[in-house]
Amino acid sequence: EEEIPEDHPRYQDLLTRHRIEAGVEKGITHLQGMHAEGRGSAFDYLLGEETIPSADDAERAAAAHLLLAEHPVLSINGNVAALVPGEMVALAEAVDADLEVNLFNRTPERIDAIADHLREHGAGDVKGLEADARIPNLEHKRAKVDADGIYDADVVLVPLEDGDRAEALDEMGKTEIVIDLNPLSRSPQVADVPIVDNIIRAVPNMTEHARALADSDEAELEAIIEDFDRERALENAEERIRSGDL
Ligand code: ATP
Ligand code: MG
C-alpha cells in the first residue's frame, strides 16, 4: 500500500485493488473477488468515485435501521474483510451489532482466516463458524448461517452480496441493507435499503451517521426510515451512471 502516492488521481481505486490482492495472498479473499472488485470499480468510475446525495441518505437510513434493530448482524465476506475490516468492527460497535463471516465459496480455512483477520482489527466475538442453521430456499452450501447470528437477525447488512442469497434473506422477512455499486444488480434491487456506493466510503459514513443519531429517540429514527425512498435511491444512482455527467 505504501507504494501508491496519495496524490495519484486514481489513488483510492489503486488502494482498493491492492487490498484485494493482499487479501487473496493472505487467504481471506477468493480469486473470484478480483472480478467482483473490477466490476465495482467500473461502476464507481461512472459515479464519479464519490458518495452521491441519495447514497448518503441511504447510509443514514441504514444507520437508523441498525440502531432500532433488536438483533442487527453485519455479514462479512472475503472482499469485505480485505477492504474494510477495521471499519466493519467500528460500525458493529457503534450500533451494537454482531459480525458474521458468510462466504460464497465457503472453506473452513478461509472462515478461520477471516475471523482471525477481524480479531486482529479489534473484533471480539465473530460468528459464522458454527453454521448450524440454514436459509430456506437456497442450495445447501450457500445456505449456511449461524442460528444465533444471521438466522436470528431482524436487520442484516450484506455488503457485496450474491443475488440469490439477497433474495432468500429478503424472503425470510429480514430488513436487508445492501451495499453494491451496481444499482441494477439483483442484491440492491431486493434490498430494503440499497446503498449504491463504494464500501470503502459507505461503511465509515454509516458509522458517522450512527454516532450522530445515537441519542435520537425511536420516533426520530422511524421518521428517517419513513422518509427514505428505495426506488428513488436506485433511480438516482442509475441516472447518475447513465448521464456521464462527472
Ligand atoms: P450477480 O448478478 O450474480 O449478482 P454480479 O456481477 O453482481 O452478478 P457479484 O459477484 O454478485 O456479481 O458482484 C459483486 C458486486 O459487488 C458487483 O455488483 C459490484 O458492483 C459490487 N462491488 C464490487 N466491489 C465493490 C465495492 N468496493 N463497493 C461496493 N460494491 C462493490
Ligand atoms: Mg450481484
Short overview:
55% of the residues lie in helices and 11% in strands.
Task: Give the key terms.
11% strand; globular; alpha/beta; 246 residues; two-stranded antiparallel ribbon; binds adenosine-5'-triphosphate; Rossmann fold; binds magnesium ion
Please give a structural write-up:
This protein is of the alpha/beta class. It contains twelve helices and eight strands. The strands form two sheets. Strands 3-2-1-6-7-8 form a six-stranded parallel sheet, with helices on both faces. Helix 3 packs antiparallel against helix 11. The radius of gyration is 17 Å and the shape is globular. The two termini are 27 Å apart. The relative contact order is 0.17. The structure holds adenosine-5'-triphosphate (ATP) and magnesium ion (MG). The site of adenosine-5'-triphosphate (ATP) has 20 residues, from helix 2, helix 9 and helix 10.
Termini separation comes to 27 Å
State the CATH class. Alpha Beta
Give the structural class.
alpha/beta
**Arrangement of strands in the largest sheet:** 3-2-1-6-7-8
Low-confidence stretches: none
Mean pLDDT: 95
The biggest sheet amounts to:
6 strands, parallel
**Overall 3D shape:** globular
Number of domains: 1
Helix content: 40-55%
Number of helices: 12
Q: Count the beta strands.
A: 8
Q: Report the bound ligands by name, code or SMILES.
A: adenosine-5'-triphosphate, magnesium ion
Radius of gyration: 17 Å
The CATH architecture would be 3-Layer(aba) Sandwich
CATH superfamily: Phosphopantoate/pantothenate synthetase
CATH topology: Rossmann fold
Give the helices and strands as they follow along the chain: HHHEHHEHEEHEEHEHEHHH
